[in-house]
Fold each of these.
Amino acid sequence: MNPDSNEHFYAELPLQRIPLPDLLSDKKLFDAIPADWHVIITDIKGSTQSVLGGRHQDVNLIAAGSIVTVLNIAFGMNVTVPFFFGGDGATFIVPASLIDKLMQALALYRANTLANFNLELRTGTVPVAEIYAKGHHINIARFSRSAALSIPIVLGSGLDYAEKIIKGDDYLMTGHKPQLEELDLTGMLCRWDQIPPPENKEEIVTLLIIAKKTEYQAEAFKKVLQKMDELYGAPDIRQPISVSRLKLKTTFSRLGTEMRVRLGRIKWFELVRTWVLSLYGYIYFSTKKGKSYLESLVEMSDTLVIDGRINTVITGSASQRVSLQKLLDSMEQDDEILYGLHISGASVMSCYVRDLKDDHIHFVDGSEGGYTKAAKMLKAKLNK
């Protein structure tokens, strides 16, 4: 098959606007990823120890930077790729026409990350055909979560299989050499301070859920999401980001960290210039256009990922979370799911902004390394 013939497979999927539990109930609305596509996974090795050591901001920024690296290349080639933010890394499903260029860019990004932050970013890829040959599946749908944002929903064990291979001790990296040209991380902005829960909310909950049996994955996820709707209300009600709680953080230290992720080094003239320009943000966000951007920022915050497991950041009261945990504990006892959970007092957000009007997305995690700490809890259960 010509590798270019299906490179728009994902973009051409119908956009599903029905409630998410209903989507999960109808497997006919999911399509298998083409066998000649590839899964790419980025992951910071030893991220748990880095987070425990207080480096959760660095971990989040580097994970977000790997997404920006991939999306800028895909955008330049007019290809839409599904991707999934995981706090300490990301997952992508890409056509064959992009794989070499993306892996070369990620190889350079990996080298920059090691040199500037002394953190090792694993960057691996597994052909979808190999995943299918091992009996795993990757079935995908495009889900419209709001008028402005659509997200990929994946069922099957294929991405989990790819992750286990790439994170395994005996996995051989792809051997792609770093690209020669400078990395393009245009649009990477990480200038928001930690974000407290919205008014009348008490806490931020970061939650990871896997199904014990892949064949009952959709049913288990539907059960959890319906309970969340019942306890917390609709997704916009449990949204952890709110305009009133947003606060810019434009210190030299924060901007310098962002610059090292983007450029691999500090350019002092540009750092001062960026700091001066960032001061304009305080004025811009008080204008009509600025307020409109902040409202769309909330709407386009990536707080739910379903990539063969549920990854979500929500807000609510302690009593709501206790009620949710009762269901999760019961489902664990019945061998339906395993889960990891972290409770914090704030969210953290990294941003990818191509256009202030309608082309931006914001990656959300619980503070103090929410996804990483939830994953630690989940791994402990898996290793029992």
Amino acid sequence: MTTTSRDLGFVHRFVAGSAAAPTLLLLHGTGGNETDLLSLGQELYPGAALLSPRGRVLERGMPRFFRRLAEGVFDQEDLARRTDELVGFIRDAAVEYRVDPTRVVAVGYSNGANIAASVLLRQPIALAGAVLFHPMVPFEPEQRPDMRDARIFISAGKSDPMVPQRLTQRLIELLQDGGARVAVHWEPGGHELVAGEVAAARLWLQEAFTQQGAGS
């Protein structure tokens, strides 16, 4: 079943999957929409349910998941509010589409990866884990979140002109400090998503979120 709906607060697409597979929450980058990452989700985990919302913020007509004040400078008040909205969407969508809310794994690219990181740092119980392509630390939490049950894959480019390595590394540190199990993959290039990191993420997802691995 494939559904397009506005009923849950986000324009989104849902593709039903196998009960044995996780649900992938697909979060696009700036200028993307609810269809952009569907093929990526199918490639990363064949048989997974796919839940793909469109960001509700517009920046010069381009959808995003939260506002920014400048390149790499986030509107923190808006980020907090949009994070809460996304968590509500995840909860409501799990009920609407009858998927296991404890097996939702975010797959985000760029802006989508950053909102997923914000969810992990603010309300880690909302996600079983995440694949974050080219993320940066979205904010510095006042208290260390408990992420002992989270499994996270991070991929970034060593020459990324939009995301300095130190900002990705800081996110890695925060997640690890919270107890998350973090796998890190570095590519030599920039901000573009490349085949090597997709292949690495696919292998990691298959190992981390099989039905057997989910309870280990």
